[in-house]
Design goal:
By secondary structure, this protein is of the alpha/beta class. It folds into two domains: about 110 residues, Rossmann fold (3-Layer(aba) Sandwich), CATH 3.40.50; about 100 residues, 3-Layer(aba) Sandwich (Rossmann fold), CATH 3.40.50. The protein contains eight helices and eight strands, in the order E-H-E-H-E-H-E-H-E-H-E-H-E-H-E-H. The strands form two sheets. It has a four-stranded parallel β-sheet, with helices on both faces. Strands 6-5-7-8 form a four-stranded parallel β-sheet, with helices on both faces. Helix 7 links the parallel strand 7 and strand 8. Helix 4 crosses helix 8 and helix 6 packs across helix 7. The chain is globular, with a radius of gyration of 19 Å. The model has no long low-confidence stretch (mean pLDDT about 95).
């Protein structure tokens, strides 16, 4: 099967990191491709960045459909444009937040999400609620670091995450941790080893979920909300008499 991982922002190094994480868990017969638009914001930190990133992301999915891609992974934890992407795609489209939440709900009764900036906290809280996990998500925590700062000093990022994970265990009663940014994905195994906590990376969770859905013969429903967008003719131009 062919899976296309799309990083909706334009930072190539983050795309490459997500691809490495995905490759570690992908099945041997999965053809994994990764791409990011070049016209999107360098990072997605809030509603405005999401809105600006979605059109180019949807364009990549349209290209993927023409090439016969079987499933898509949207590698941004805000799951931007997920509904729109599912309207365009024939096969499954997996957001890394939804995938991570679904994994957490299967392996723990309570979990905490750790994200980058405080402004992302309410966005992720709303997503957890929308995905039916509001009562299971103990807290959304922030390390108060911009997305692009995560890869500038990985050792510092790791230490910040370790501190928050230990707090989540003691203060939140969390039984598992979700990493709330694709830029944290490569630290997942180290964080598990250092804290003794189950740590879930949405990139790898989404890839395995995509493989399972495609392998099971499941495709995006085209009955109702996720039906293909209707074709609309452009309105005819009309001359206006200004006299």
């Amino acid at each position: 099967m062919r899976i296309l991982l799309i990083n909706p922002n334009s930072t190539r190094s983050m795309t490459e990191q997500a691809h490495r994480s995905a490759e570690r868990v992908a099945a041997s017969d999965t053809q994994l491709e990764s791409i990011n638009p070049t016209s999107s914001p360098a990072s997605i930190e809030g509603h405005a960045d999401e809105a600006m990133a979605v059109p180019a992301m949807l364009a990549e999915i349209r290209k993927g459909e023409a090439r016969g891609i079987d499933a898509y992974v949207i590698a941004c934890f805000d799951d931007p444009g997920l509904g729109a992407a599912r309207e365009i795609a024939r096969g499954p489209v997996i957001g890394i937040c939804q995938a991570a939440v679904q994994v957490a709900m299967n392996i723990a009764t309570r979990f905490t999400i750790i994200t980058t900036l405080p402004r992302s906290v309410p966005i992720i809280e709303d997503l957890a609620e929308a995905y039916g996990a509001g009562h299971r998500c103990r807290k959304v925590r922030s390390v108060d670091m911009p997305v692009l700062a995560l890869e500038e000093d990985l050792a510092h990022t790791e230490e910040m995450l370790v501190q928050e994970i230990l707090k989540a265990r003691q203060e939140d009663g969390a039984e598992a941790i979700i990493l709330g940014c694709a830029g944290m994905s490569e630290l997942c195994d180290r964080l598990k080893a250092r804290t003794g906590m189950p740590v879930i990376d949405g990139v790898t969770a989404a890839v395995k979920l995509a493989e399972a859905l495609v392998g099971g013969g499941y495709a995006t429903s085209k009955v109702g909300a996720y039906d293909y967008p209707r074709t609309k003719e452009a309105p005819a131009c009309r001359l206006v008499d200004a006299s």
